[in-house]
Amino acid sequence: MAPPMSAGAFLSSLRAAGVTVVEVGDWRHHNRNHKGPWGPVHGVMIHHTATRGEERTVELCRTGHPDLPGPLCHGVITKDGRVHLVGYGRANHAGLGDDDVLRAVIAEKTLPHDNEASTDGNRHFYGFECENLGDGHDPWPEAQLAAVEKVSAAICRHHGWTERSVIGHLEWQPGKVDPRGFTMAWLRARIRDRLK
Ligand SMILES: [Zn+2]
Known about the structure:
- InterPro entries: Amidase/PGRP_sf, Amidase_domain.
- This is Peptidoglycan-binding protein.
- GO terms for molecular function: N-acetylmuramoyl-L-alanine amidase activity.
- Pfam families: Amidase_2.
- The strands form 3 sheets. The chain has a 6-stranded mixed beta sheet with strand order 1-6-5-9-2-10, with helices on both faces. A two-stranded antiparallel ribbon has the order 3-4. Strands 7-8 form a two-stranded antiparallel ribbon.
- Helix 1 packs across helix 4 (about 140-160) and helix 4 (about 140-160) packs across helix 5 (about 185-195).
- The protein is globular and about 35 Å long.
- Helices cover about 30% and strands about 15% of the residues.
- It contains 5 helices and 10 strands.
- The longest helix has 18 residues, at about 140-160.
- By secondary structure, the chain is α/β, with parallel strands linked by helices.
- The relative contact order is 0.20.
- Bound molecules: zinc ion.
- Zinc ion (ZN) binds near residues 47, 169, 176 and 178.
């Protein structure tokens, strides 16, 4: 059971991790807390946006769209490795997922295959959207991957979690394919090395 970090602590921990942070608008108070609870937090979820173009991608993640209002994550990691903070609190990124997966994340055990959409993930996960088309061809620059690794490790370090608390959307919600272009096992190994 971990209460979410304050927005200030979140910002400080990302900066301490050595990433370039861009604060977008009133990100500290832009959230969906009026729609449901935020916390306790149990992990970090990684996504791809299926979009191209930094400005457009950040704006979409901040405002969302009519069917899914923003923020759509907490931080948008663009191809240059910058982390754009678009919201803080409950965000529309994880949706409904598998309660067995959530239990495995909490226990930091091997994840079961996700086959249920029964549990509110927006309550329990920090979320990062990464600018990538998700077509399996669009490259993931090293600067971007390094930023994903650093922000994930920073949050794990704050909460005393291992790399097993970092999952991909595709491991949470049946039918999701993101992030595509690397494996979460590979990313978790990088995060594990950084946490040593
Ligand atoms: Zn996603």
